[in-house]
């Protein structure tokens, strides 16, 4: 990152990155470089051929972090994409996203997956690894309209339930 952004990772960031790479939650204080720390596990997982999704709580932060960190990841040989629900998801865009090592997306991206299940999109990038920047924001503060989808083990097909939920949300 130093060659691109002029920053060096600090000890606490290496610890946080190692914890995240080991599927742990890392609590990093404000100002200690959470966004920069995420580069470490994202790059590590991409080396193993996993597609990494970095999710943020708002479209603004997602775009800012994508444009800020993209240069470092590209310098390291990663293809980086932005899953933006406002942009038209053409087949060409989907092909690009499917070829990316790291994809930045915001909290609304799971609804794109729901729309995919309903047949609106032919293919969406796979989820191998999800890293949540500001996880407390994603899990607690952004719960404006909590939605829970459930089905029993005996349920043969959850698609009718998903369609019903999507129709309620779309209204």
Tags for this model:
about 170 residues; alpha/beta; four-stranded parallel sheet; 9 helices; about 10% strand; globular
Could you characterize what this model shows?
The chain has 9 helices and 4 strands; from the N terminus they run H-H-H-H-E-H-E-H-E-H-E-H-H. It has 171 residues and is an alpha/beta fold. The protein has a 4-stranded parallel beta sheet with strand order 2-3-1-4, covered by helices on one side. Helix 6 links the parallel strand 2 (80-83) and strand 3 (102-106). It is globular, with a radius of gyration of 17 Å.
Specify the overall morphology.
globular
Radius of gyration: 17 Å
Count of strand segments? 4
What fraction of the residues are assigned to beta strands by DSSP?
5-15%
| Strand order in the largest sheet | 2-3-1-4
Give the biggest beta sheet: 4 strands, parallel
Low-pLDDT sequence parts: 145-154
Termini separation: 44 Å
Order of helices and strands: HHHHEHEHEHEHH
Mean pLDDT: 76
Task: Note the topology.
Layout (H helix, E strand, L loop, with lengths): L1 H4 L5 H11 L12 H4 L1 H9 L4 E5 L2 H17 L4 E4 L7 H8 L3 E5 L2 H9 L11 E4 L2 H7 L17 H12 L1
Helix pairs in contact: 2-4
Summarize the structure.
The protein is α/β, with parallel strands linked by helices.
């Amino acid at each position: 990152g130093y060659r691109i952004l002029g920053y060096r990772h600090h000890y606490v960031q290496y610890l946080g990155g190692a914890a995240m790479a080991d599927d742990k939650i890392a609590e990093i204080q404000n100002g200690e470089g959470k966004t920069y720390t995420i580069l470490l596990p994202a790059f590590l997982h991409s080396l193993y051929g996993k597609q990494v999704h970095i999710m943020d709580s708002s479209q603004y932060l997602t775009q800012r972090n994508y444009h800020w960190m993209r240069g470092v990841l590209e310098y390291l040989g990663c293809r980086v994409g932005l899953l933006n629900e406002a942009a038209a998801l053409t087949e060409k865009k989907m092909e690009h996203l499917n070829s990316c090592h790291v994809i930045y997306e915001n909290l609304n991206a799971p609804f794109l997956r729901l729309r995919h299940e309903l047949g609106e999109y032919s293919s969406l990038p796979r989820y191998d690894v999800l890293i949540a920047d500001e996880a407390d924001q994603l899990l607690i503060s952004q719960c404006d309209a909590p939605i829970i989808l459930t089905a029993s083990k005996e349920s043969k097909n959850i698609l009718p339930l998903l369609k019903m939920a999507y129709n309620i949300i779309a209204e």
